[in-house]
Write a structure and sequence with these properties.
The complex is a heterodimer of chains A (522) and B (374). By secondary structure, chain A is an alpha/beta fold. Chain A folds into 3 domains: 254 residues, no CATH class; 181 residues, 3-Layer(aba) Sandwich (Rossmann fold); 46 residues, no CATH class. Chain A is built from 18 helices and 17 strands. In chain A, a hairpin with a 6-residue loop joins strand 11 and strand 12. The longest helix of chain A is centred in the N-terminal third of the chain and has 24 residues. The radius of gyration of chain A is 28 Å and the shape is globular. Chain B has 374 residues and is α/β, with parallel strands linked by helices. Chain B has 2 domains: 269 residues, Rossmann fold, CATH 3.40.50; 60 residues, no CATH class. Chain B is built from 12 helices and 10 strands. In chain B, helix 2 packs antiparallel against helix 4 and helix 2 packs parallel to helix 9. The chains are: A alpha/beta (522), B alpha/beta (374). Chains A and B meet through helix 4, helix 9, strand 7, helix 10 and helix 14 of A and strand 3, helix 6, helix 7, strand 9 and strand 10 of B. Chain A: It is found in: Nucleus. Chain A: Keywords: DNA damage, DNA repair, Metal-binding, Nucleus, Transcription, Transcription regulation, Zinc, Zinc-finger. Chain A: This is General transcription and DNA repair factor IIH.
Chain lengths: 522, 374
């Protein structure tokens, strides 16, 4: 009783404090904070604010335009969020295209939590289905296996295989019928995953993606032994935590990824969960020579047959009319890519190989077009959407940066604010144009994203003759070699980009995360 | 547990009856058409009129159906309809007409359905502008120029804009959220977030642009992802790229035997929308050539060797076991049992010996072992 009383008093005083301060200062809360920042020292009488008290208020970032609408800001914020996903490294790096991945799902009682809708368990299964589809779409010649952590044991859901349909049925049949129960055991699951990856050929990658909902693990032995043997067998582990960061997970990820813990992520919300999970569908970068030994693989390119009468396929023993004939043993299989069930030859289509090429030759990032260059285009080249034409026609947009240094420069009086806008014009890209550095064509943000995420082509470069592209070589923006960016030439653009990244990070922070992630931040 | 979940019955959705966007990619290479006309007596103007009738038929199906025409020209890709917003919209063919002539044309077109007339006028005017800007030298300089990859990319980005509101990308839209039947603008939306269906028709007279293999394949996969069928009407020289495009996206591939009757082929083969296609047997080609050609001798292969780093295809292990594309030293140890029977003879002794002699015994035994029985 006494405890709860004390808590109550504390929290009520915390509630009162801002009210009282607001009343005493007689000004808006925003200005109070600004003056505090400008001084560099807390205002007299104010106590030190806890991290969780200092919530980023997203509505503070929105400023009315000249016409009183916030449409401009909203467009800017949307574009910044969309753009954030795009700014990735486009250096062509060697990636492990042939992958072997074990997906470990947590099926312990922690997954019954309802902090993700409808429950962690159901959402995880839904995302797991999406993951399987996406994984095989991105990595058609790779293999996958699914394991569950259920009631202290490792539960095999599907065997190592390359057919997405098998995994989806297995998920449907095994995982959906299992009720999450008991504790999860990291060691059991990792050992089972290791056993499955141990015999995979050396030219492929060996990966484990672990979805960890619990905060504890009940292991039969020393997990550090398991971690060491994972390192020995050069298995890379990625972890998506659903609750909070766990020390042993971090250690596990760091040890198996050469000291890099970027493969361990704790989710903020459903969208972030999906993002983290889908990040594992991109083939991992090959780090060291011994991680994977490049080799020459023998593969069969079968031809398709159409039969008049049904016959049994050798993979599922189903009656099918037509299929693919293995060029070595002439067995009929009904699905590609697969391993011939008779002679073990890898059977693929040349289109499956083509599907992986975009990982090897990524499309360059496009750059934002400043207003000085925007006059050359009136509409998006590929989707014909008109661009905003003139700077004066768009409402002035500004966003506050919550950096102490920037805040110090901008005082609360109105005259300084426009100047700040000019200094950081790209915070909200007002031209809404993005230019390819090769063909200099201008595109809108949606085409930018679509081209980089789905087509992996620049529609402009593919649609112009080489002479035309050459004749445009001197136009803005300067051409960049892939991965070898001339810092002097694109200096301003790069700084703009970091600013966008900065702004989007702040936007991200201003989201109010579910309770569990607060601990993670600390 | 799913069954107890009360959200189940909100998920029931009748398939939304959405309109269709037809994108036509038309080869306008003058030289290719001239050659084609000699052999088939189908000229470009008559082909264009027949295509426009096809487009009109598509527009006539539903008031909200739309149509776009993209020209794959010798100097690049041009939108014929919708025409570039920034350009001069006058028809160069009408520039020297007198007022009387214009009046006559207007009277002739007075009873035409407005949507048809707009599309026809726009396509014809854009095409005349395009030809007016093309010099004979440019035509002779690039007799087989084709920008198939660019045309497909442009068509897909346009479809992405019109049918998906620009959100058709991988991470577009709100992930995992149940989407409602109605979007913010009040239009109908189906479960994937699209507001319209789309299909692409490629009318081609040029050969495959061999240097565009990867971009074309990338476009095909993007179309597959958006569930946009690519129909192909190949008038001359059958091509592998377009066959694969139609096969991978579930479109129709046709090579008309009698090109004079183009309109009939178009109407019968390509007009049905996605709903009608479910209940039709489509006149498509079944045997598609999937065999790969090796990078070293351009031989067509049944069984080949693939570099695990860059996925180059070779017909035999390259010299010195170094991949000629990515210059990586390849491990050919696992190929040592090449030519030996895959199913091992029953002599146990020999097998053991063979395994022991190999350095990576785990790998070798995995490759050696007969097929898993499942």
């Amino acid at each position: 009783m006494a405890d709860s009383d004390e808590d109550f008093v504390l929290s009520s005083s915390g509630d009162d404090r801002p009210k009282a301060r607001g009343g005493a200062a007689g000004s808006s809360r925003r200005s109070t904070r600004k003056s505090k920042r400008a001084d560099g020292a807390p205002a007299p009488g104010a106590t030190r604010r806890e991290k969780w008290e200092d919530i980023q208020r997203s509505w503070d970032n929105v400023v009315e335009g000249a016409d009183g609408s916030i449409a401009g800001t909203v467009i800017g914020l949307l574009e910044a969020t969309k753009r954030k996903r795009l700014l990735r490294d486009t250096t062509p790096i060697q990636r492990g295209i042939i992958r072997h991945l074990v997906l470990i799902l947590d099926l312990s009682s922690a997954m019954l939590e309802k902090d993700l809708r409808p429950t962690r368990f159901l959402l995880t299964l839904r995302y797991a289905r999406d993951f399987v589809t996406e994984y095989f779409e991105q990595n058609p010649i790779s293999q996958l296996s699914i394991i569950g952590m259920h009631d202290g044991l490792a539960l095999r859901i599907s065997d190592m295989g390359g057919n997405p349909a098998d995994h989806l049925t297995a998920l449907q049949e095994k995982a959906f019928t299992v009720e999450p129960k008991g504790a999860s055991s990291l060691q059991n699951a990792l050992e089972m995953g290791r056993a499955e990856l141990y015999h995979t050929p050396t030219h492929g990658t060996r990966e484990i993606l672990l979805i960890f909902g619990a905060l504890s693990s009940s292991d039969p032995g020393d997990i550090h032994d398991t971690i060491n043997s994972l390192v020995e067998d050069r298995i890379q582990v990625r972890i998506v935590g659903l609750a909070a960061q766990v020390a042993v997970c971090r250690e596990l990820v760091m040890k198996t990824n050469d000291g890099d813990d970027s493969a361990y992520g704790v989710i903020l919300d459903e969208g972030h969960y999906r993002e983290l999970m889908m990040a594992a569908t991109t083939p991992p970068v090959t780090r060291t020579e011994q991680k994977s030994v490049p080799s020459l693989l023998m593969m069969g390119f079968p031809s398709r047959t159409v039969e008049k009468h049904e016959s049994l396929c050798s993979c599922h023993s189903n009656l099918t009319k037509g299929g693919y004939i293995c060029p070595r043993c002439t067995a009929k299989v009904c699905f590609l890519p697969t391993e011939c069930p008779c002679c073990g030859l890898t059977l693929i289509l040349s289109t499956h190989l083509a599907r992986s090429y975009h990982h090897l030759f990524p499309l360059k990032n496009w750059v934002e077009v400043p207003w000085s260059e925007a006059h050359t285009s009136t509409h998006c080249w590929s989707c014909q959407t008109p661009f905003p034409t003139n700077q004066s026609q768009t409402s002035p947009i500004k966003i506050k940066i919550r950096k102490p240094s920037a805040a110090a420069a901008s005082t609360s009086n109105g005259t300084a604010a426009p100047e700040k806008d000019r200094q950081q014009p790209s915070l909200l890209p007002p031209t809404q144009r993005y230019a390819c550095t090769d063909c200099k064509t201008h595109f809108c943000i949606d085409c930018d994203i679509f081209a980089h995420e789905s087509i992996h082509n620049c529609p402009g470069c593919q649609s112009l003759s080489e002479e035309k592209i050459k004749s445009r070589a001197n136009m803005w923006p300067p051409s960049t070699k892939n991965g070898d960016i001339d810092l002097a030439a694109v200096g301003p653009t790069l700084s703009m980009r970091t600013q966008v990244a900065e702004a989007t990070r702040m936007l991200e922070n201003s989201k109010i995360a579910p309770g569990s992630s607060m601990e993670v931040d600390n | 547990m799913d069954k107890v979940d009360g959200t189940e019955h909100y998920n029931f959705k009748a398939p939304a009856d959405l309109a269709t966007l037809q994108v036509i990619i038309l080869d306008t290479n003058p030289l290719a058409w001239a050659t084609f006309e000699k052999s088939s007596s189908l000229s470009f103007p008559s082909a264009l009129s027949q295509l426009l009738i096809f487009a009109n038929a598509h527009l006539a199906f539903s008031q909200s159906n739309r149509c776009a025409v993209i020209a794959n020209h010798i100097d690049g890709v041009h939108f014929l309809s919708p025409a570039d917003p920034g350009t001069d919209h006058r028809d160069p063919g009408e520039a020297d007409l007198t007022l009387e002539d214009l009046k006559e044309i207007a009277q002739k077109n007075a009873s035409k359905y407005r949507v048809f007339r707009l599309l026809e006028d726009e396509v014809r005017a854009s095409y005349r502008r395009l030809i007016a800007n093309t010099t004979p030298e440019a035509v002779m300089a690039s007799p087989n120029a084709s920008y198939l990859a660019g045309a497909l990319s442009a068509a897909l980005t346009y479809i992405n804009r019109i049918c998906f509101g620009g959100m058709g990308g991988r991470s577009g839209g709100v992930p995992g959220e149940e989407k409602s039947n109605v979007n913010s603008a009040g239009g109908k939306v189906d479960e994937t977030g699209r507001t319209m269906h789309a299909k692409i028709l490629v009318v081609s007279v040029t050969p495959d642009p061999a240097n565009q293999y990867i971009p074309v394949m990338n476009s095909i996969f993007a179309a597959q992802r958006l569930k946009v069928p690519i129909d192909v009407c190949k008038l001359r020289d059958s091509t592998v790229f377009l066959q694969q495009a139609a096969d991978a996206t579930g479109g129709v591939y046709m090579e008309p035997e009698h090109p004079q009757g183009l309109l009939q082929y178009l109407m019968v083969g390509f007009l049905p929308d996605h709903l009608a296609r479910q209940s039709l047997i489509l006149p498509t080609k079944v045997d598609v050539d999937f065999r790969a050609a090796c990078f070293c001798h351009k031989k067509v292969l049944d069984i080949g060797f693939v570099c695990s780093v860059c996925l180059s295809i070779f017909c035999e292990p390259p010299e010195g076991a170094v991949c000629s594309t990515c210059q990586v030293k390849l491990d050919v140890a696992s190929l040592e049992n090449l030519g030996k029977p895959v199913v091992l003879p029953p002599k146990k002794k020999k097998k053991k010996k063979a395994i022991d002699s190999l350095p990576g015994s785990g790998v070798a035994s995995a490759a050696d072992s007969p097929a898993r029985t499942e």
